[in-house]
Amino acid sequence: MNVTIPAEWAPHRAMWLGFPSHAALWEDDLEAAQAEVSALARALAGPGGETVKLMTGSPEGEADARRLLGDVTGIEIVPGAFGDIWLRDTGPIFGRDHRAHGFHFNGWGGKYALEHDDTVATQIAQASSAKLVAHDFILEGGAVDHDGEGTVLTTGQCVLNPNRNPGWTPAVAQAALAEALGAKTVLWLGEGLANDHTDGHVDNLARFVAPGVVACPVAFGKGDANAAAYDDAARRLAGMTDAAGRKLSVVRIPSPGWIKGPEGKAAPASHMNFLIANTAVIVPIYAERPGAFAVQALEHLFPGRQVIGLPSTAILTGGGSFHCITQQEPA
């Protein structure tokens, strides 16, 4: 099977978005998280130029979504069942031929096994009238980033972690990604963000922004827990070439700096969790000053799209941000 995964900047038929639907999970942050997701949905359906498919995971979540967004043009509310909103990881990865590639999901290495999460890929494929192609290994969508030309960017910390596919080596992983996702070249980074329960998803660390161009963070302010990981990623990327033989150009984007997380540890906050929509780029903001710098930097990288910064502090309490809760459906 000849597989091509489009780059995120390629045109989208729709953007899937998870809506916080379970009070038992979000507790005191539920209302604020719903407000942040609602703001993202409005931005996607407005300046983002997207048809938004807002997936809810419970009757209560559906009712809240309809109350907040039911009359917004361009937003379709899709009742479903999920453990939580991280559709990038539980949903399918769409190919250019509109096949939906589904993978086993084990709760990020067994950390968070929630009911229905292992059915999300099937639900989205059915709702999109896409053929589901099931692959017999564990992979989350946030663990891989694509340039649309067969280059896959990932981290060894996650994809080679024995809590996913025991015994995997780089060669075994590359063969699996070639068969499932059409990977011609796999570029390996090392460690991801500190305290990231995904074990280092690449969509918090480095992202393709154009053919041959990758963005990754540079530490902002004192005490950034990820300064070494950022610099290591940049050094590795500077020595890499993509599937087309281009030497990568690396652009450093200011990180959010130190953001307080649970138990006083650094939260896995990242501007790399931006979302490339049809006519906009939407960036999660955790602190005003570094967020403004990140928006300015991304404006230079996406001159044809409006770059919008939106708060994501409540969503971050669940462990991720905008890219983590979305999945694009290519045109």
CATH topology: L-arginine/glycine Amidinotransferase, Chain A
Instruction: Strand order, main sheet: write it out.
Output: 3-2-1-16
Low-confidence stretches: none
The number of E-state strands comes to 16
**Number of folding domains?**
1
Treating each run of at least 4 consecutive H or I residues as one helix, how many helices?
A: 11
| Structural class assignment | alpha/beta
Write the layout of secondary structure elements.
Layout: E1 12-18, H1 23-26, H2 30-45, E2 52-56, H3 59-69, E3 75-79, H4 87-90, E4 93-94, E5 99-104, H5 107-110, H6 120-127, E6 131-138, E7 145-146, E8 151-155, H7 156-159, H8 170-181, E9 185-189, E10 207-210, E11 213-218, H9 227-238, E12 249-254, E13 275-276, E14 280-285, H10 288-301, E15 306-311, H11 313-316, E16 326-330
Parallel strand pairs: 1-2, 2-3, 5-6, 8-9, 11-12, 14-15
Antiparallel strand pairs: 1-16, 4-5, 7-8, 10-11, 13-14
Helix pairs in contact: 2-3
Question: How does this structure look, described?
Answer:
The protein is an alpha/beta fold. The protein has one domain (12-330): 5-stranded Propeller (L-arginine/glycine Amidinotransferase, Chain A). The chain contains eleven helices and 16 strands. Strands 3-2-1-16 form a four-stranded mixed β-sheet. The protein has a three-stranded mixed β-sheet with strand order 4-5-6. The chain is globular, with a radius of gyration of 18 Å. 51% of the residues are buried. The model has no long low-confidence stretch (mean pLDDT 97).
Task: Quickly list its features.
single chain, alpha/beta, L-arginine/glycine Amidinotransferase, Chain A, four-stranded mixed sheet, three-stranded mixed sheet, 11 helices, globular
